[in-house]
Amino acid sequence: MRTKSTKYAEFNNKIINHLILFLLLFISNIAAQCFAPNPQNPRELIPVACNLVKNEPQENLKFKDSTSNNSSSSNNMFDITLNCTVSTDLCSKVQKAFDTAGSIISSYLLLNTRIVLSASFESFCDLYSSCSENGILGFASPARWILMEDDDNIQRLYPQSLVKQFELSTHPEYSKNDIIASFNSDVSYWFAEDSTPINETQFDFLYVMLHELHHGLGFSSAWDEYFTGYVTPLLANDPIKEIDAEDDLVYNNTSYSSFKFYECAFDKYVILMENGQKASEITEKLNTYFTENNNANKKKNFEISFPTCLCCPIILA
Ligand SMILES: [Zn+2]
């Protein structure tokens, strides 16, 4: 016979089971905050879901001994996938230049985790109808930016290739590629294997690519002229923050309450030359706009009221 107390116990068990299920669901949905570059506009970042995942043990190379000077092509820490739509001969020069660039960068960066690069060499005239002679040479960008809390308690955008080097036991879900790069085959590029020396109308492909790959590694600033006449950090969605079962701060990737100015990892070191003020202090002041103005369309409102709303220093472009 079932008594009142056994019914109560069953009821309690049901609640506990539901609670455990709820907690499990909640834990499986906890997330870091990640952004991907907008392919239509590289100056804009799109929030992407990146739940926390346990690190799968992988065969990472150990940190190289910086005292040993044994840099060679065998030390290339880049896994390169090249999509090349021109002649086989030209594509093999492009591939070789990518391999050389990978070896060069691997010789002076302390990398413990391989970097995955997805690159293309194709006609921007066909792709983007950008057919002018002085067109874009190419570009590279981190495939994913991950919001990380710095040691000065400011959250900044870290390139995925750098976050991977931290070898975190639990980390935000990574994008398949660390860097995406694209180079314009319409440009008159010069390659090391060319039989003639470079002339004044040509660009050294390896030189251009090395420059761009550093941007792909995250060597860049979020400060730019996004609003006509003013230089600010990058403006993107500010995710709703939640506290998980372990008291950690996590991000809800499906809803956004506001906008926020974000700096990149290296912006921590940016100062104003005239007085030594840290750029991060200005970012913090700029962000008070969003915490103090509870408007529906805050991005739009900020654009309208930007010149007058703040008493903080505004840098003119
Ligand atoms: Zn550049």
UniProtKB/TrEMBL annotation:
Signal peptide from the UniProt entry: 1-32
The UniProt record lists the keyword Signal: yes
Keywords for this protein: Signal
Protein name: Sequence orphan
Protein source organism: Diversispora epigaea
Lineage of the organism: Eukaryota, Fungi, Fungi incertae sedis, Mucoromycota, Glomeromycotina
